[in-house]
Amino acid sequence: MNPPTAPGTVLAVVSVGTSPGGASAPPIRVLIADDEPALRDAIASLLAHEDGLVLVGEAGDADQAIALAVARQPDVALVDVSMPAGGGPRAAREIIRVSPDTRVIALSAFEDRPTVLEMLRAGAVGYLVKGTTAEDLLGSIAKVVDGRASLSAEVLDGIVHELSSQLRREEIEQEQRVAQRGEIQRFLSGEGVTMVYQPIVDLRSREVVGMEALARFHSLPLRPPNEWFADAVRMEVGVQLELSTIRRAIAALPSIPPHAYLSVNCSHRAAMSPELPSTLGAHASRMVVEITEHEPVEDYPALAVALAELRERGARLAIDDAGAGFASLRHTLMLHPDIVKVDISLTRDIDRDRAKRALASALISFGDEMGIAIVAEGIETAEELETLVALGVPFGQGFFLARPAPITG
User: Do 261 and 371 belong to one domain?
Assistant: First the structure.
């Protein structure tokens, strides 16, 4: 008769097998962790009738399983994938951590490929679907103790399918990366890129005071410019692509009214490039460099030094997307721009939003105090324009005033 056991633990003493040479082999110590008592009882009964196996404990959740692994140091742990207190993956990771020599076999009531892979990543070396034959269960224990993996046929088929699908997804992603790199190289060579220009106007007189240059990339499927620039950054050619589009923008300067400036978008990385001053060259006095607020700046002092050189050449600085970007108004406070461009999210429906009107008024007062020109972006309705004029915003741009278009002439 087996000795009495503590609550929650079944201890079955079985006969010990012999090694090929006749010497007694140590028994394989097995832990069962499953929240179904009936299943635990069935496995315990099976193990109790097998020579060379000893059941060292049963657990109904992950916490109990981990505690038993610490105390009993089993050779094999049969672990349910969906038990309480964190599930099988947590139990597997922690059992292996506290008992490194324990080999974990996962048990699942159904074939679930994501769960299979999660358990394997957690350290399981076997995976069986519940309901498998006693012969398969015992064979799996023997395999993992022998240092081999053991997966049921249903699970193995699922893993092969999942890995095949994953490899295909990776292959497609790699093909897309290669295609995108090829497109960006094409853009860098000057192909597939055009520049359009949106007027920036005096909101009272409607006189054009500047033109903002915007890149358009021609590739199928069509993608917005910010995605191409982001891809270029990931491919470590972001600055080169920006400088290339700035050169193309500058080429249109002779066709821009001589009293108007040309505004170009520029990341802080491109603004710090030693190539930018020479790119602006003799045209610097007609250029405005727009730094967006949508990206963080790691080193403001270094950026300020780079911008100071541009300003010495006559270029002006604008903060783009003010009030809605990563840094809110920090760029404005740290870089002391000549122009602040109010983001479209603050302009949109400003005629119906008292909070936006209050913020616009504060920005206008700040601009007046600091000698900074305020430009409202994204003006799309007559009501927005009227409200901005009434608030005292001096300059603006948007579809209501003029859409971006190529320059001809």
Answer: yes
